[in-house]
């Protein structure tokens, strides 16, 4: 029986991870749940882990109702304590920059991380690999696209790989309207194929999510940006492809169900059965080129990757601010790429290090806030 911890247990990936845990009979030894007291308590009562963590402001609502044998810790230090517990897998699913520190702690403790927080690789990929190498920690990707590439690359000679191909649904505005300036948060949150949290759903609507995934693939697999492609695949059934130098293409196909890549990341190299129905193979599957004029955020991801250094950190921080501003009605949808580009233009030519990373994140957020106020 595998023992796992889940960082970000109350979010979409965290909840689905716990569904997989019920399939497989995993022993849950630690949960990090943030501010959602009700969901975290439900999970604690069901799985009875010895340790859980929440935001300090939520502790008073959680502590009196914990089951016997479950201990509560709080804040950043608490999340690190959970992340470094003895476990077969640590599922890292705390969204955004906030997920970096506990993921780093887990890897520094030599844990095997099933990584769902793409921002970890985006803002600190080279540094994260250094930590893993020093400690013996391991990483398997959870994102459906990177799980697909990971599976397609198994057993292949890296020298035989010509290109990695990420697929994108195109989001809710793939077919229009041409003018995106008046779309509402409600419209942007209606993803055509996936059920995700609000931040990643808006990033999918702007195609910035695919820009992040390009950067994640670049750092995760050590592949040049020039050899990472993006295609629109509205059906979201082919999650990633690898093109080889001999002309062959290998693809990973599956339903739009994140429980499958979660199980792959936890169980690799095993492939145990799931209770899901087989995917029907009938129907029309199509590919299209992304419209980078309507969705400039994708190209900004490539630009940040080519710039290197702190540019991915600046871009990621700016997007977190811009998306929050759009969701709260402070800026229009079309302001998101404008804010990202202006913040990226201000990125200093500073070497990426653990010492520069956190300050860069704060500086980029401040820049994005200033641009938001000017709108």
Summarize the structure.
The protein is an alpha/beta fold.
List the helices and strands and how they pair.
Elements: E1 3-7, H1 12-24, E2 27-32, H2 37-47, E3 51-54, H3 59-62, E4 71-74, H4 75-83, E5 89-92, H5 100-108, E6 112-115, H6 118-135, E7 138-141, H7 144-153, E8 161-168, H8 185-188, H9 198-206, H10 208-221, E9 228-232, E10 238-244, E11 249-253, H11 259-267, H12 297-307, H13 311-327, H14 335-345, H15 354-374
Parallel strand pairs: 1-2, 1-5, 2-3, 3-4, 5-6, 6-7, 8-9
Antiparallel strand pairs: 8-10, 10-11
Describe the structure.
With 375 residues, the protein is an alpha/beta fold. 45% of the residues lie in helices and 15% in strands. It is built from 15 helices and 11 strands. The chain has helices spanning 12-24, 37-47, 59-62, 75-83, 100-108, 118-135, 144-153, 185-188, 198-206, 208-221, 259-267, 297-307, 311-327, 335-345, 354-374, and strands at residues 3-7, 27-32, 51-54, 71-74, 89-92, 112-115, 138-141, 161-168, 228-232, 238-244, 249-253. Strands 4-3-2-1-5-6-7 form a 7-stranded parallel β-sheet, with helices on both faces. A 4-stranded mixed β-sheet has the order 9-8-10-11, covered by helices on one side. Helix 6 packs antiparallel against helix 13 (311-327), helix 13 (311-327) runs antiparallel to helix 14 (335-345) and helix 14 (335-345) crosses helix 15 (354-374). The longest helix is centred in the C-terminal third of the chain and has 21 residues, at 354-374.
